Amino acid sequence: MKEKFIDEIKDTIRQSTNWVKLEVEYAKFTVAEKFTLLMGSLIIGAVCLLMGLVVIIMLAFAGVELFKMILPPVLAYCSMAGVMCVMLLIIYLLRRPLLLNPIAKFITCLFFNKKED
């Protein structure tokens, strides 16, 4: 009876260590998956940011050409710089709802498996 009990304890310990190993492997795969999703999102975000900057530069030059029709070139460039500063100020003032909240929501959903609304 005592040997049967000891064999059951050994079997339980063996199964427990196997279960812990499987949980560690699952955690590794989960971390790798979430890291891959995060890095992919960062790369896509960086590419979109660079392309968006090119578009903004082109629109700024188009705005300068538009201002050149009614202003001297120096004032056209200064006016476009003023418009860009106002846009930068608006983005800075709205940084929490435009940038920080969506990024925090994405990372929270990614790491804590919460479903998006």
Explain what you see.
By secondary structure, the chain is mainly alpha-helical. Helices cover 91% and strands 0% of the residues. The protein is built from three helices and no strands. It has helices at residues 2-68, 73-93, 95-112. Helix 1 (2-68) runs antiparallel to helix 2. The longest helix is centred in the first third of the chain and has 67 residues, at 2-68. The chain is rod-shaped, with a radius of gyration of 29 Å.
Strand and helix layout:
Elements: H1 2-68, H2 73-93, H3 95-112
Helix pairs in contact: 1-2
Q: What's a quick, concise take on this entry?
A:
With 117 residues, the protein is mainly α.
Largest sheet: none
Beta content comes to under 5%
How many strands in all? Answer: 0
Residues in helices, as a percent range: over 70%
Please work out how many helical segments DSSP would assign.
3
**Net shape:** rod-shaped
Q: Indicate the structural class.
A: mainly alpha
Mean pLDDT across every amino acid position: 90
Main traits of this protein?
single chain; mainly alpha; 117 residues; 3 helices; rod-shaped
